[in-house]
């Protein structure tokens, strides 16, 4: 069974970079570029992991995460959040909203891959 | 022949009649009936207590001695009555509005409720009244003696009879004047009895006159002939005395305590003055009509050396007309009794109110509240005062030897009481008159009167003859009847001239040099402008005067405007209209107390109102002092209040400043956060792809090339962003240097369009009306071009039409150059239009390169250039308008 | 009413009726007269001082004439005051009809 990741990011270049990295690790990478429909897309795609940008057009990543956690079956879904603002307040907000891992742009590729692997491992164990 | 016993019986019967009248009148007044009791006629008749026994007997005596001079005593009051319109009316109005109880009260009230002044006036009035009362005693005694001479069985002794007359009059006055204590000092019964007496004396004198003219002289013509033939039959008056006497009688008419009593205190209705103004002079005219005929006939008929002061009695007696003589005796008795009663009443009121009561209250200090027993004290004080005044009159009579002519004694009294005139008239018409002035004037006049008139007149060795002839210590210029060496004047004229003129001068000078207290100034204003402050009240309402005191006090505490507003509102509640003072009803007092307690505390407010309303041992001045202190406290507390208000104002300013700082800080945070995001985003791509290229083996050449291009693009994006930020910061800080130059709009647009469209992937056709672009501009061409490029490339990036078209048009609108950039896309949604010029604002999800600073920079540039860039809603697509003021434009030549 | 009379009262936006103006004008003149009256009386009563008397040797005026003069002046003064008193009452009655009007206020 292949591992599926849903990447929600509006910067096409960043999307492309992550897709390149994860595809090579054996992930099936789906992308989505805005916030309004993000929850619906996640629910429909049933990914094993979500990478979520904070600054999204339409709806912020924080709200997407909060709404996502409202759904019972989504409480355990690993969500890796990326932000370009890098303020400690954002990290707190994200943790309250139920984030699994929080990363600040720019990140190193190794960091992303490590985080994705850890999250997936945790999810599979439980 | 009537015996003395009959005479005494007649007198007693007459007195009983008077009592009966007074009693009935009081009952009528109390039951609210007897409207005629308050008629102008009664008022006029009561005024005629001016005509005393002096007038009744003395006028004829005076005429027999000096011809027409006697008439001056009536001409003075006539002139006063004629000038009622601006004189007496004001006096009466003030008396009523201030609830004045006597002339001393009026003077004291006018000069700041000074009791010193009241005592001064009272003393003067008592001293001036004493000779006058002695005069009445003398006249009654003399008239008795006439009958006694004719009574062979008479055991008449002058000394004892004077005593008994004095005692009888005292009892009479006490019984009449102090039967009850009226709060308003008004006595309907007494006034009515006096009116009756006036009729009696006029009737008696007229009867004697008719008898003399038609019974003895044989008609009018023969009487006139007799007059001209008599020893007084030629016009011979001393001009100085004539003028002085007219003036003196006018002054005394106003100042005499008994005249003040009937004229002002007992006045029921101001409009009565209107009737009295002609009726009283008429009464005086009738009283004096037959004086000269009686005098002339008396001189003719009676033996040389008979007392002309008694011609009114002796002429009928000599003709054997005993009944007429009896009538005439009763007339004289009437004159004397009415004068004595009213004088005693008036004087005792003054003495008890201004001398006895203050002393008594002082001794009672500390014994707590003053209750109902004050009334008995006051009554007792008045009774004792009356007795004392009568005793003074008796002793004066005994001392002066009873020999002086009636008229001269009367004039001594007139001159004494007239010393009040300057203070009175000054107080009514001159606001600058002060208490000090009144005191100094009164003292000077009083002293001069005693020295130049009273003491020399009394004789009896009070002043040694040597002093009168050579002056005290031999100083000739201080001779009592030739002051400052001015000799040869009539003693009366001399005394009146010096005392009144120096009195007036002292009064005026001291008034001008001294400064009145606030209470004096308040009272002065109320007196002088009484017609502005009061309305013609019908009926005496003593309580309204209380309201005025309350008003004065309230003004001190609450301030003038709020106090007036409060009282006016209360008056409106009571009467349905504003404009007069409210009655101090219990409800009103309660509200007032509540109002005051808000300022001075409940206990003080209660005490203050209690003192004013409950009649009090504390003077109004004391209360005002308390009010002043409270006002100071209030001022102090309001200062504190102001300070605390200032503090809270400062605190609010600090809070505002803090909020502002917080806002600025938040804006700064938001901006930094935005900048951070805009910087980190391209760097993320750059880092990610550079790591991919570094770490990934076996990338195809196409991939390598593509990733390198991405890195390059993102690096450019970073550069652009940094440029924009720098640009914006320079523009916003205002440190930008404008590089002014000249150019045409057409050339500028040409350049902007070509540089904006170069390198753009999306096609955009630009439509222009080149003919409208022939406008010469004087501005920073590069900056303006930057704005144009930004707007054109925005259209290029964001116009979502299938075939994007940008229309650029230039106009001259309202003295401005206006350049519109309108595309055919879907435009900017209304909710975003207001945000479009803010930093980092982007419309929609399109990420076509910009960081959202372009329009913010455009706005800053246009502000520097003195114009503006705005969004034009409703143009079909996105529409921006750039406007520049005409001052930068010069028409192309 | 003469033009001068009309000028006596202040022009106001709402012009009161001619009758009232005239009345208030009369009232004012009447008050003037009332103020003058005592001075007239004083002058009349002072006039006898100019008469010749027996002291300077000339023939003095007979007393009966003096009496006539004094009492005639006196009576005239009273009469004038009667007229004035009634006029004042009529005016004040007319004025009482106006609300809050001060009787004969200057």
Question: How would you explain this protein's 3D organization?
Answer:
The complex is a heterotrimer of chains A (126), B (893) and C (106). Chain A is an alpha/beta fold and 126 residues long. Chain A has a single domain, classed as 3-Layer(aba) Sandwich (Rossmann fold). Chain A has helices at 12-24, 38-45, 61-70, 88-97, 109-125, and strands at residues 3-8, 27-32, 49-53, 79-83, 101-104. Chain A has a five-stranded parallel sheet with strand order 2-1-3-4-5, with helices on both faces. In chain A, α3 (61-70) links the parallel β3 (49-53) and β4 (79-83). In chain A, α2 (38-45) crosses α3. The longest helix of chain A has 17 residues, at 109-125. The radius of gyration of chain A is 13 Å and the shape is globular. The model of chain A has no long low-confidence stretch (mean pLDDT 87). Chain B has four domains: 4-360 and 374-403, Up-down Bundle (Sodium/glucose cotransporter); 541-618, no CATH class; 639-726, Helix Hairpins (Orthogonal Bundle), CATH 1.10.287.130; 738-891, Histidine kinase-like ATPase, C-terminal domain (Heat Shock Protein 90, 2-Layer Sandwich), CATH 3.30.565.10. In chain B, 68% of the residues lie in helices and 5% in strands. In chain B, the strands form two sheets. In chain B, strands 2-4-5-7-6 form a five-stranded mixed sheet, with helices on one face. A three-stranded antiparallel sheet of chain B has the order 1-3-8. In chain B, α4 packs across α11 (239-255), α9 packs parallel to α13 and α25 runs parallel beside α29 (620-695). Chain B is rod-shaped and about 170 Å long. Chain B starts with a helix and ends with a strand. The model of chain B is unreliable at 366-372, 535-544, 615-619 and 888-893 (pLDDT under 50). With 106 residues, chain C is an all-alpha fold. Chain C is built from three helices and no strands. Chain C has helices at 3-8, 18-46, 63-96. The longest helix of chain C has 34 residues, at 63-96. Chain C is elongated. Chain C starts with a helix and ends in a 10-residue tail after the last helix. The interface between A and B is medium-sized, with 27 and 23 residues.
